[in-house]
Amino acid sequence: MAEDHPALLQAVVDFLDREGFTIAGTAADGLDAVELAAELQPDVALVDFRMPHLAGLELLERLSAAAPATRVVVYTADADEVVVRGALGAGVSAILLKDSPLADVKRALDCVLADGTYIDPALAGFAVGAESGKPLLTEREEAVLILLAEGLSHDQIGTRLSISSETVRAHVRKACTRLGASTRTEAVATALRRGLIS
């Protein structure tokens, strides 16, 4: 977890520990968060959107590069359309507000660990707006979806693209988030229907 307010960090960490989550590490700024993610390669990174030294979309991009298989959950005080659209565009698995009950943090983490996505109900309107336009897939996400459409497995796609199968799964998860899809099959179908892949 990355959060620059010590009291909030401790409260959330204590709660998640009681709920059975293993907290691999904590960071108080964006640069430390990226270094920690690169070192630990956690299942999930719960990160504040605005932190010292490195923040916002640059933080999300650096996290994704440092730990491509890590699911990123944005924890923010900003009920802001630009933040929501930017985070979803960067491929995060969940976004929730800091004033949400701690039970919602657990709900979001449980959801993304089950390969789902979670958007704070208070932000859902922004998310729908973000998905109404043409979603932007990265070139690698497009390539992965095209190969999925051809029936290749994650391992076969990894071999074809010279990346690990875990990185393939990470690209699939991020594509699902961008497309508002809950499964890889739905992501492929959505991408085909919208003309994002052929």
Briefly summarize what is shown:
This protein has 198 residues and is of the alpha/beta class. Helix content is 55%, strand content 9%.
Biggest sheet, spatial arrangement of strands: 1-2-3-4
CATH class of the largest domain: Alpha Beta
* Second rung of CATH, namely the architecture of the largest domain: 3-Layer(aba) Sandwich
Supply the number of helical segments. Answer: 10
Query: How many domain units?
Result: 2
Strand percentage lies at: 5-15%
Helical content (DSSP H or I, runs of 4+):
55-70%
Task: Describe the sheet with the most strands.
Answer: 4 strands, parallel
Termini separation (Å)?
39 Å
Sketch the topology as an H/E string, one letter per element. HHEHEHEHEHHHHH
What is the radius of gyration computed over CA atoms, rounded to a whole number of angstroms?
A: 16 Å
Helix-strand category: alpha/beta
Let me know the CATH homologous superfamily of the largest domain.
Response regulator
Q: Low-confidence parts, pLDDT < 50 over ≥5 residues?
A: 129-135
Quick one: how many beta strands?
Answer: 4
Could you name the CATH topology of the largest domain? Rossmann fold
Based on Cα principal axes, name the global outline.
globular
Describe the protein in words.
The protein is an alpha/beta fold. It has two domains: 6-132, Rossmann fold (3-Layer(aba) Sandwich); 139-193, Orthogonal Bundle (Arc Repressor Mutant, subunit A). It has helices spanning 6-18, 30-40, 56-66, 81-89, 102-113, 124-132, 139-149, 154-161, 165-179, 184-193, and strands at residues 44-48, 71-76, 94-97, 118-119. A four-stranded parallel beta sheet has the order 1-2-3-4. Helix 4 (81-89) crosses helix 6, helix 8 (154-161) crosses helix 9 (165-179) and helix 9 packs across helix 10. It is globular. The chain starts with 5 loop residues before the first helix and ends in a 5-residue tail after the last helix. 37% of the residues are buried.
